[in-house]
Amino acid sequence: MSSTELPETLAAAVPRVSAVRVADGERLRSVALPGLTLNVRSRPPTRPGVPRALYVHGLGGSSQNWSDLMPLLADVVDGEAVDLPGFGDSPPPEDRNYSITAHARAVVRLLDAGGHGAVHLFGNSMGGAVATRVAAARPDLVRTLTLVSPALPEIRVQRSAVPTALLALPGVATLFGRMTREWSAEQRTRGVMALCYGDPSRVSEEGLRHAVEEMERRQGLPYFWEAMTRSARGIVDAYTLGGQQGLWRQAERVLAPTLLVYGGRDQLVSYRMARKASAAFRDSRLLTLPDAGHVAMMEYPEVVAEAVRSLIEESDRATDETNGRPGRNDGRDGGVFSGSGASRGDGDYEGDNDSGGS
């Protein structure tokens, strides 16, 4: 089977809906793997020989969530963003398994199939939990790890996050669908933006139009709510796992240099979790953006990109020194990046944290 063919059973299940949007400079391809097919969005690098990167979206998102950040890093990474099974333009998995472990398995299969070795791995929200699990289980596949508002277990969940968690309960999605049957795609889109953005007014008219078009496209997919509800259930299940499979325990096992990005206006992942996360990941840096919400890479992509560059440069220097070559010195200290003003969403970038525990 070629990488652009859908398995016959899945192809029959996918209805004809409008084409997914492709930004200027982006390419789409479909990768067939055992039991699933993944849509992959790529942006060719502007320099040859740069390392690979993979971007993983969150619950209800898609590879388009990374379209603002990818071009800003095109000179340092060869970036690809995946649509997780059942999201974006990827059909549902054959086994209908939407657990965090299943999503992580899909990412691992994609990376193994590519055969490019370790990548710079990015994850947002649910994708952050997925990326954490990948980095803990397969350190050979991860050069650095960047997590934007990762969905890691919280004891005191924010009230604004409760409705999302309720999607995991049987029948809630059906009830919500009936209650909002008369809502337009624009109303639904504005509701999502109000929840995910620190300041929804920052979204341009063009950005809103594209988001509404994507919402209309998704509403035409019969498996959209299945993917949402079962993935939400997967997040709740992952929160309750203990022992070696617990997400915080797995965070402690991550070896890759890690950048953690948290927004002060995040209504889904508490800002107070930033310190706990920076203590759990053994080689972490913390970027806090007081005016950002849940999707900082979409709200303040330039600030996030600058912090990612610092992470990659520092990682490269460490690799050079380990291999017996002089470390690269571009005049930066590599430890601290400070933003110029919280009112513009700029934040503080804090250096290595090797405390290893809270």
From TrEMBL:
Q: Where is this region: Disordered?
A: 314-358
Is this entry keyworded Hydrolase? Answer: yes
InterPro entries, A to Z: AB_hydrolase_1, AB_hydrolase_fold
Q: Single GO molecular-function term?
A: hydrolase activity
Q: Give the AB hydrolase-1 domain ranges.
A: 54-299
Provide ranges: composition bias, Acidic residues. Answer: 348-358
User: What is the annotated signal peptide range for this record?
Assistant: none
Q: What is this protein called?
A: Alpha/beta hydrolase
Q: Which organism is the protein's source?
A: Streptomyces camponoticapitis
User: Which lineage?
Assistant: Bacteria, Bacillati, Actinomycetota, Actinomycetes, Kitasatosporales
